[in-house]
Amino acid sequence: MPKTIKEINDKIKKGKAVVVTAEEIIDIVGKKGIKKTAAEVDVVTTGTFGPMCSSGAYFNIGHTKPRIKIGGGTCYINDVPCYTGFAAVDILIGATAIKNDDPKNTVFPGTFKYGGGHVIEDLVAGKSVKLTATTYGTDCYPRKNLETWITLKDMNEAVLFNPRNCYQNYNVAVNLSDKVIYTYMGRLQPRLGNANYSSAGQLSPLLNDPKYLTTGIGTRIFLGGGEGYVVWQGTQHNPSVKRGKNGVPLMPAGTLAVMGDLKHMSSEWLRGASFAGYGSTLTVGIGIPIPIINEEMVKYTSVKDEDIFAQIVDYSKAYPQIIPGSLGEVNYAQLKSGQITIKGKQVRTGGISSFSRARKIAHLLKEKILSKSFYLTEPVAPIPSVDSGISFKLLNEKPVKQKQ
Amino acid sequence: MAKKRIVLTFPSTLVGQPITTHLVKDYDLMLNILRGVVAPNEEGRLVLELSGKKKSLEDGIKYLKGLGVEIQSLAQDIKWHESKCTHCTACIPACPTQAMSVDRDTMEVSFVKELCIACELCIPACPFKALEIQF
């Protein structure tokens, strides 16, 4: 019999809810079957912990005396540039921002030691960061310069706002060329020297709700060690890709935009990361609870690593030049074994997303629900699914010399 | 038979001399060069695995020290900062000796110093600066 989210929340309140992780449900379904599991289990918790470049945070730092209008000026936190195109003391920092004097890739491969992702990690760790701003004066905002130490506590609002997180599946990156390449999928050794993947597989949130039936706008989630919400589909949301019979996409597909109060997050679950030769970013921990409203959700949440397939893509040529095609398909059980076979060659695998941390998040979220400190929400609107007709398109460049 | 992995730092004045040949011929040692960096007019650095009789090993090391070569034990060179590690496993395919390895049940990474040859290939592979070379 179908359950409503309200019924599930009532059970959580009474301490009677049955909450299991996206791995635990696999065994339960194996023993009891789908029907019985649907009756017994109320919530399945998922988790993922990986680098997610489209992440950032915005702050209201409080007004200075006399007032300063940073909006329209320039602002840095620990020398990392912030976006200032908002009101007087609202600023935003993105995960991939780097210092103006970072050598970048001038000495290849650059190390990208400290960027926006590291600023966010330092702030949530409670550290004082150096904020500097330069701007023009106005009658109502006369001050032109600001230099101060600031902590997260000092700010009025500090909000993590990530336009694209939680990728539903991802590529397996390899290098077919004769020289080492440095990518956002890590360092790839020449001639299929290694294969790097990035998904939590059977624990990954959107691989357990492949058609976004319970995850929508307004879904409360575990975000960066605190709480957050799904606020929109993520950028590059691409629900129309080819899927397996189990509904699971065979390549990168759905994404989520999420936000939450940074003040309640932790540096254990928001970590700055530096990809040699590529750039700096933020590794984000996300866990999404999936209400078992019917048997269909049991079927989806019991998906196993061996039933989730990813495409092997050459990052020396096919990826940068947008040449379609795949060198083959492998499942996450094979990827997690440490070795896969590509073109008859045994290739060692490495992860970019941490499976052990994803598992920890799924358990933390389970504990939060069982201890009645986390309740489920009903989405206020769905995110576009398989039949939406939405697909991800390339930029159609139009030469600016030709008048429009 | 004794075995030792060492990091040798040569002053620029010694770079031109066939020191390792003496270790083989005069001290009857087997040597396996794990890494070597020698640039003209600069310090040279060599990572060696020496094996032979215990006495020969001691004498060979004494000979190197007498020449002014700085010697460090290799095991101390790569440091794995466990608290910085997120267990993503990006370092795993980079490591040629399986000093960095994964428990496939827990998917947690561990580091066995004894297997490490300080090749440093893991360092740029780690996005969290959890691996550090300490000379």
Task: From the structure above, extract its key features.
heterodimer, A: about 400 residues, 2 domains, 9-stranded antiparallel beta sheet, 4-stranded antiparallel beta sheet, 6 helices, globular, B: about 140 residues, alpha+beta, Alpha-Beta Plaits, 3 helices
Largest interface: A-B, 37 and 19 residues
CATH topology of the largest domain in chain B: Alpha-Beta Plaits
- Give me the count of strands of chain B: 8
- Our estimate of the beta-strand percent of chain B is 25-35%
Structural class assignment of chain A: alpha+beta
Please, how many domains of chain B?
2
Which architecture name of the largest domain in chain B does CATH use?
2-Layer Sandwich
Compressed to H and E, one letter per element, the order of chain B equals EHEEHEEEEHE
CATH-assigned homologous superfamily of the largest domain in chain B: ACT domain
Nearest-angstrom radius of gyration of chain B? 17 Å
What is the highest CATH level, the class of the largest domain in chain B?
Alpha Beta
Summed up, the helix count of chain A is 6
Please state how the strands of the largest beta sheet of chain B are arranged side by side: 2-3-1-4
Kindly, what is the distance between the CA atoms of the first and last residues of chain B, rounded to a whole number of angstroms? 27 Å
The portion of residues assigned to helices of chain B is 10-25%
Mean pLDDT of chain B: 87
